Amino acid sequence: MPAFDDIARLPVIKYYEDAFRSATGVPLAVVAPGEPPRRCCLGRSENGFCVLAGATAAGCTACLEAQSRAHRAVARQQGPQQVNCFAGLTEVAVPVSVRGRHVATLLSGQVLRREPTQRDFAMILKFLGPGQDRDWEARIRRAYFETPVVTAERFEAIIQMLGVFAQYLSELSDHQMVEPSADEPAAVSSAKRFVQARSEEAITLGEVVAHVGVSRFYFCKLFKRATGMTLTEYVTHVRLEKVKSLLVDPSLRISEIVYAAGFGSIPRFNSVFRRHFGMAPTAYRAALRARLPG
């Protein structure tokens, strides 16, 4: 099962963060799941007001509290969540889940939902407290009134875009779990290729061990350490990846897909599929087709 560090290393992360900012004018950061120990910075494109407010003791504490609320809500609901900070800005958190496990969170927002007023800003300055000079006050005033004001329709579109990216990251991570990697031992890569070439057949541990040429005990320990899975779990993973690709074809019956992917029993397949994806194959197919163009 991929960890947050595996997600964060994906090259597509930085590309999408930059593209998302260019398309929406809103920052995006992919952060670790769970409540943050300190305020999360949304990178180079972070809202200027949030940067300045977050540099104060009161602002940093209040911002961390809002982000923590968003993270708690995401962990509890496993769906997109939005919270308002002390200054009235809305932040959005969207979970990235792989096989039902929350592995990362998309953090975005830092936008206003209505036009700001001088009265709003005066209350914010009072909250942040004294101790700042006039230059700082001028900069945070300018940044506050330059904060994007997002309509309900545009805000919904932003959430949908985040949801699409979260789903893409989930499926990409899921797929990469089955692929051989240059970082792993040669015996593990060889075993993966062996399984992928014969996934529709019955595969035994003895056959794989004989193929890679190491002892059974050593292989099991090595494979588990490298992949986080047993060989049996990996075989199931490979077969489910094949199922996902076949479900896109509306001409194939579920029963045909079951046997083409190497599952010898429809009841067992249904049980395994539901356990991994949280829904029946027919529901998953409908969701896949709904995302396809046209």
Describe the structure.
The structure is a single chain. The protein is of the alpha+beta class and 294 residues long. It folds into 2 domains: 173 residues, no CATH class; 106 residues, Orthogonal Bundle (Arc Repressor Mutant, subunit A), CATH 1.10.10.60. The protein has 14 helices and 4 strands. The protein has a 4-stranded antiparallel beta sheet, sandwiched between helices. A hairpin with a 2-residue loop joins β3 and β4. The radius of gyration is 24 Å and the shape is elongated. The two termini are 33 Å apart. The mean pLDDT is 90.
What's the helix and strand layout?
Blueprint: H1 4-8, H2 12-24, E1 28-31, H3 48-54, H4 57-77, E2 81-84, E3 90-98, E4 101-111, H5 118-128, H6 134-145, H7 152-176, H8 186-197, H9 205-212, H10 216-227, H11 231-247, H12 254-260, H13 266-277, H14 281-291
Antiparallel strand pairs: 1-4, 2-3, 3-4
Features:
alpha+beta; elongated; Arc Repressor Mutant, subunit A; 14 helices; 294 residues; 4 strands; four-stranded antiparallel β-sheet
Please outline the major beta sheet.
4 strands, antiparallel
Task: Report the end-to-end length measured between terminal Cα atoms.
Answer: 33 Å
Mean pLDDT: 90
What is the N-to-C order of secondary-structure elements (H for helix, E for strand)?
A: HHEHHEEEHHHHHHHHHH
Residues in β-strands, percent: 5-15%
Order of strands, main sheet, comes to 1-4-3-2
Residue share in helices?
55-70%
